[in-house]
């Protein structure tokens, strides 16, 4: 199974939990902490992410970048959602 990880732009997260519901690995949760906007933000809580990109695709605020690791310490971005306010651009690479 592919090994992946995700990073969050926590200050733009609104805590809607869509990514948490979309994750088949149950890898995500809202932090007990809040960001500057006053929202509990999503965080990775397990080391079982597969880099499937479901979470990034459902996030309405382009908070999440997904990485897939080919080898240990060789992580590459596979999905980055940009331009949410106008045209959504999804970049997916192998
Ligand atoms: S990339 Fe897939 S497995 Fe990883 S946190 Fe997002 S939804 Fe879960
Ligand atoms: S889907 Fe996006 S905005 Fe909603 S909780 Fe997840 S990271 Fe935050």
Give a brief outline of the structure:
11% of the residues lie in helices and 41% in strands. With 94 residues, it is mainly β. The protein has one domain (3-92): Alpha-Beta Plaits (2-Layer Sandwich).
The parts where pLDDT drops under 50 for at least 5 residues are: none
Largest sheet: 4 strands, antiparallel
Chain-averaged pLDDT:
87
Tally of discrete structural domains: 1
Helix/strand-derived category reads mainly beta
End-to-end distance: 15 Å
Tally the helices. Answer: 2
The global form is globular
CATH topology: Alpha-Beta Plaits
Q: Sketch the topology as an H/E string, one letter per element.
A: EHEEHEEE
How much helical structure, as a percent, in the residues? 10-25%
Q: In the CATH hierarchy, what is the architecture at level 2?
A: 2-Layer Sandwich
CATH class: Alpha Beta
Small molecules in complex = iron/sulfur cluster
Task: Walk me through the structure.
- With 94 residues, this protein is mostly beta strands.
- It has one domain (3-92): Alpha-Beta Plaits (2-Layer Sandwich), CATH 3.30.70.20.
- The chain has two helices and six strands.
- A four-stranded antiparallel beta sheet has the order 1-4-5-6.
- Strand 5 (74-82) and strand 6 (89-92) form a beta hairpin.
- The radius of gyration is 13 Å and the shape is globular.
- The two termini are 15 Å apart.
- The model has no long low-confidence stretch (mean pLDDT 87).
- Residues 4, 6, 22-23, 25, 27-28, 49-55, 66 line the site of one iron/sulfur cluster (SF4).
